[in-house]
Every structure is written in structure tokens, then in C-alpha cells.
Amino acid sequence: MTTPERLRSLVARDIKPARPLRSPVVRALAIGPLAMATVVIVPLVTFFRSDMADLGLLRGWGLSFVESLAGIVVVGLALRESIPGRALSRGLLLAAFIIGLALPFAIMALTATPFSTGPAEFAWTDTVVCLRTSFAAAIPLMLLATLLVARALPLRPGVAGALYGLGCGLVADAGLRLYCEFTVPSHFLTAHAGAVVVALGAGAVIGSVIQRS
Amino acid sequence: MQEDRNAIDPGEVELCRLMTGYLDGQLDAFDGLYAALAPRLRSYLLAQCRDASLADDLVQDTFLQLHRSRRTYQPGRPVTPWAFAIARHSFLMYLRRTRRRLRFEDTLASELTSRDVARDDVRALADRDEVQRALVQLPADQREALLMHHVQGWSFAEIATQLGIRVNAAKTRAFRGMRKLKGQFRA
Question: Domain count of chain B?
């Protein structure tokens, strides 16, 4: 089968050496510095939680490092998902979403013994402050991840978007937990876990919109 | 691992070589890729759309998309799953763009019913609609595997290669699709 003349001329007009994209792992590592900056900048710009000394290095910075690393891994999965022929299996996707969404809860459980720090009654203002801080911290990372995914060819853009949204949400939450010490379930569920879910949803929407455009 | 894969499909080694040349900007390598992949892609796309001229157009769309996205190919990895994923993408884009999914299913349903025993016209029409509705309700991946196996007569190994999935996954998809189809007719 020979190449049709029209197709051949279109390709010939545009053919030039092209450097393949780096592997998803390498590209995910490229967001590492910005992810680390995201973690550090939230408490630096605002303030550190008052019980940082009680938490210690491992349960304070250590767990934030683990959460941000998990976020980078999830962004790496999104980058892999956006390579044709390397789509993630349903099982791996499910595992990524379940583990990603469960991680903030697990970290909270590891750091808070009494889940009673914070307002006794649900306070919207605190929730909004944490949501806003988390989302604002995630924006630069989301932009970079969007750019990286859009440079490839995500065949399921909504899935790829949801994955990198989740990853960026986790990184932002890793910074937020160094700033907010509230452990009451109503605040944690709406503000902290809620921010991760919002980032996931925003990523899915952005991914789908980019694909359509 | 790479050697194992090559041992199974020696043609893949040649495709990788051509792809490398294509990434270096060699038009001859693109021609080689077209010669090697186009018949298989056409066959795959034909199985999807059941329209020869549309399949030809989709093959060209696929190669244009492949050209635009050539940087997403990762050297050393098999070319076939990458190319077939792009073909699938082109086909799905076509479906979305034209919103002709129903018509497409109608064509497929006609193919299925045309192989059936002769019935009176009213009964045949009712059956055709029934098959069409039943097929529409199947998940896309199961419908794809079912049609490739039961209508096109592809082996599960061939389906697995074309879709870039495991043989067992191809079997499972076709089996589940058929089970759901039967279930819908029994209901």
C-alpha cells in the first residue's frame, strides 16, 4: 500500500526531525521543584501550625513530603495516561483514585489523636480560607501539569485531567497541613479533603475543555 | 523484556527502525510506516465503521494525527499499540464530530441481521431495531471486541494486538458483550 499523494505532500511539507517527549517518569520529576515550593510556600506565606514542634520532623515535614511525593506520582500517571497506547488499566486507575483520595485521611489519622482541634460548630469562614489557600497553591502546579499533558495526546482527557488534578490537590494539601491544625472532621472533610476533590474535578474539566478546543 | 516482545513479533523491530527514521525527518521512513501499518489500520477502522470509503478517510486522518503527535512515540516501545491507539482516537473523534453514532450502529446491526435466517419484512425490521438498540447499550470496549470477533472473525490474539490489550482481556470483553447482548434479548 503506497502513501496517498495528498497525505504524502502534507507530511512532506511539515517533516523535520522531532525530538520525542521524555518518559512520563522524567517529566513528572520535572514538576518536583515546583511541587516542593508549593508545599513550603503555604506555611511560609501564612504561618506554621502552632503544634509543629509537637508533631516533630517526621510527622510534620516527613508526612508532607510523602503526600507531595504521592501527588507527583499521580501526576506521573496522568502523563503516562496521555501517551497513546499507554493508557492506564481500569484497576490501576481505580487504585490511584482510591489511594490518592484516602491519603489525606490516612495522614490526618497518623498525626491527630484527638480529632477535636478547631471550632466545635461548622464554620464556613475557616472552610473557605483553607479551600482558597489550597486551591491557590495548586494553581501554578495545575498550569504546569496541564501544559505537560496537553503536549502529549491524552485519549481520555477527562481521566488524565482528573489524575493530574488529584496529584496537584495532594501536593497543595501537603502544604496546607503544615499551616492548618484543625482536626475536627467537619473542617477536615469540607476544607482539606474537599480541596483535593475540587482540584480533581477542576482537572477533569480543564482536560475535557482542552481536548474539545 | 524488549527482546521477548521482539521475538514474538519481529515486524515490530522493523517498525521501530522506521519510526526512528521518521522522527529523524526521513520521508521514506514515513512511506515505510504507511505501507506497513495502513492495511492493518484500515482493517481495524473498517471493522469499526463498516464503510470502506470512510475507513480510507479515517486511515488518512489517523496518519495525519500520527504525524502531528509523532513526538508522543517513545523510542524502543512497540509502534503498533501506539498507532492503533491514535487510530481509535481518530475514530472516536469522528464519531463525536459528526454525531453519527446511531447511524453507525444501524449499519452494524444491518450487517448482523443480514446473516440471519430469512424472515418476513416486518419481523426483520423489528429485529434490526432490536439488535441496534441492544448494541448501543453495550459498553464501547465490549461492543468493539464482540464485533471484531463475531462479525469480523478476528482471533482473540489478533484483537489483543490491534487494541493493545491482553488476550484474556479481549476474550473477557467479547464474552461479557455477548452475554449482555443475549441478556437483553431474553429480557
Answer: 1
DSSP state of A1: -
Q: Across the A/B interface, how many CB contacts are shorter than 8 Å?
A: 91
Please state the pTM of the whole predicted model.
0.73
Task: Specify the DSSP class assigned to residue B99.
Answer: T
Query: What is the domain range of residue B13?
Result: 1-98
Are the C-beta atoms of A18 and B29 separated by less than 8 Å?
A: no
C-alpha cell at B176: 461479557
ipTM of the complex: 0.78
Is residue B50 a part of any domain in this protein? yes
Instruction: Mark which residues 153-192 of A lie under 8 Å from B by CB.
Output: 153, 155
- Say yes or no: A84 contacts chain B, CB-CB below 8 A: yes
Mutual angle of helices A63-81 and A124-151, in 10-degree steps: 40
- For CA atoms A149, B165, A11, B23, the dihedral sign is positive
Any domain includes B85: yes
Residue A161 cell numbers, joined: 485531567
Among candidates A68, A69, A82, A67, which has minimal Cα distance to A162?
A82
Structural domain includes residue B12: yes
Q: Most B CBs within 10 Å: which of A15, A80, A151, as the mutation test of the B interface?
A: A15
Whether the CB of B94 is below 8 Å from some CB of chain A: the reply is no
Are A155 and B88 within 8 A, CB to CB? yes
Residue A11 CA to its chain's centroid (Å): 37
Q: Is B153 inside a domain boundary?
A: no
Distance from CA of A87 to the nearest CA of B (A): 9
| B71–A11 C-beta distance less than 8 A | no
CB count in 10 Å sphere of residue A176: 30
pLDDT in tens, chain A (213 residues): 788 888 888 888 888 899 999 999 999 999 999 999 999 988 888 888 888 888 888 888 999 999 999 999 999 999 999 999 888 999 999 999 999 999 999 998 888 766 667 676 767 788 888 899 988 999 999 999 999 999 998 989 999 999 999 999 999 999 999 988 888 888 888 889 999 999 999 999 999 887 665
Could you tell me the residue ranges of all domains in chain A?
A: 22-212
Distance CA B136, CA A78 (A): 29
| Chain B closest-CA separation from residue A212 CA (Å) | 10
Q: How many angstroms from the chain centroid is the CA of residue A170?
A: 5
